[in-house]
Amino acid sequence: MTSKRGFLQACAACALGAASGAVPQALAQPAAAPPGPKHTLTGTDSEGKPIALTDFAGKVCLVSFFTAGCALCTHELRLLREFYTNNRHRDFVLLGVNLDEKRADFAQYIELLKVSVPPEQRFPIAWRGAGGHQDSFGAITRRPTHYVLNRQHQQVLRREGNFLPTDWDDLWTSLA
Q1: How far from each other are the two terminal CA atoms of the chain, in whole angstroms?
Q2: Rounded distance, CA 10 to CA 123, Å?
Q3: 30-58 pLDDT, tens per residue?
Q4: Of 161, 61, 74, whose CA–CA distance to 109 is shortest?
Q5: CA-closest candidate to residue 130, choices 39, 40, 50
Q6: Side by side, which strands form the sheet with 134-135?
Q7: Nearest C-alpha neighbor of 148 from the set 32, 50, 51
Q8: What are 98's strand-pairing partners?
Q9: For the chain, what is the radius of gyration of the CA atoms?
Q10: How far apart are CA 114 and CA 153, in angstroms?
Q11: What is the DSSP letter of 151?
Q12: At residue 44, what are phi and psi to the nearest 5 degrees?
C-alpha cells in the first residue's frame, strides 16, 4: 500500500509540476559531464601514409579500436561505416585503430575491405602495432572500444563494446 501511495504522490507531483512549467527534481536531466582528456594519435594508415589526429582538427572524431577476427567488431564497424557515410560532410571523421598482434592479420583485413566495402564507405585505419604508432588512449582491454572526441579532440565518451542507442543520439547531436 505504501509503494502504491508513493507512486500516486509522484504522479501528482509530476502533474502539478507540468501544469506550473516546473520540472520535478527527480526528472531533471543531469548536467553534461565536462570533456575529458585531449587525445593524440600519430602513425600510418593502411596505405602506409602518415596519419595524425591533428589532420582532423576542428572535426568531431570517433576513434574505434578493434580486431579483424572480432564478430562484435565487424557488426559494429558496419554500423559505424553507415553513420560515417551519412555524416562525413558534417565535419565528422571515423578513424579505426586495428589491434591485431600480427601485421599479416591487419594486411589481410585491409585486403578484404578493398573487395567488400565500397570506396565511399572506407575510412582511415591505422595499425596500433606499427613502428612509430603513438596514441594517448591507454590500454584497450575490450573489443571494440570507441572514443568520441569533440572538435578540440577532448574525450566526451568512451564505450567498451557496442554503442548504445543513446551513444548514437549523443554523437548525432555533437555534430550540430
Answers
A1: 47
A2: 49
A3: 456 788 999 999 999 999 999 999 999 99
A4: 74
A5: 50
A6: 50-52, 41-44, 134-135
A7: 32
A8: 66, 127
A9: 21
A10: 29
A11: T
A12: -130, 145
